[in-house]
Amino acid sequence: MDTKPRTLRLSERGLNFEMLLWLFARLSALAIYVLLLIGLIGAFIMGARTQMNFADVMRWSFMPTVTHVQNTNVPELAPWIRGFWKVIGSALVLTAMTHGARGLVVIADDYIVSVRGRLIVRITGVVVLVAMCIIGLYVVLTA
Amino acid sequence: MRMTTRNVTLTRALRYKGQGPMLTFILHRLGGLGMAVFVTIHILSSFLGGTLGVHLNGIYESWGFQIVIFFFVMFHIINGLRIAVLDLWPSLLVYEREAVWVEWPVFLATYGFAVLVIIRAGLGS
User: Fold this and answer.
1) pTM of this prediction?
2) Count of domains in chain B?
3) pLDDT digits (tens, 9 = 90+) for B58-96
4) Which of A41, A78, B66, B69 has the fewest Cβ atoms nearer than 10 Å?
5) Cβ(A128)–Cβ(B36) below 8 Å
6) Cβ atoms B86, B99 nearer than 8 A
């Protein structure tokens, strides 16, 4: 059996929009890891080691918004509500939403195979994505 | 050229023995779908507020639900790192099965510990 990786040159791969979305899924995933790490490190700098449990720290890292620390033993909420965390939270909303919307389209493509059906899936995806980004940003910025 | 029909029947698809990588593929999808549904409803309920919003967020904060959503999120995060690294450095793809083997202990350790903490917090100890 041939186990060598069959890699094509970039020009032979067909660099189209779908390919760019494929690349976006990988790169946005890496961006999300960076944002989660910022949340995680930030939580420890703000004293999470003695004030929050493991699961609460992770919940904060998944989305660094103040509502995720309200039920913990954090005595002072001020550092957790700073503008910096609104920026990180907003960035997380935009990257994760786009990553997720693209993922849902990929799953739908496995079951909806007609040209027309796939077009409807894409249009629905974009509409839902834009709406959820606006609502998500509103929730994060006004929390 | 566009394919308009799937050439694999459902029964044949179910008999496909993809083993380790196939299991991660299914769990990655399940986790992604679960997160998409959870995050959408969570954001909408936070946005709408009111009795329904508070009720829904109450469910999300219960420890039973946290155990499920942590499974989805943690598996998607750890398996996603494997996918991103192997796809962006395709010469590593020959080690895909080994990479899948590595990711399970990492997942079980982090997820297992999170579950332990959630249950202990849920029992109030």
Assistant:
1) 0.84
2) 1
3) 888 888 899 999 999 999 999 999 999 999 998 988 988
4) A78
5) no
6) yes
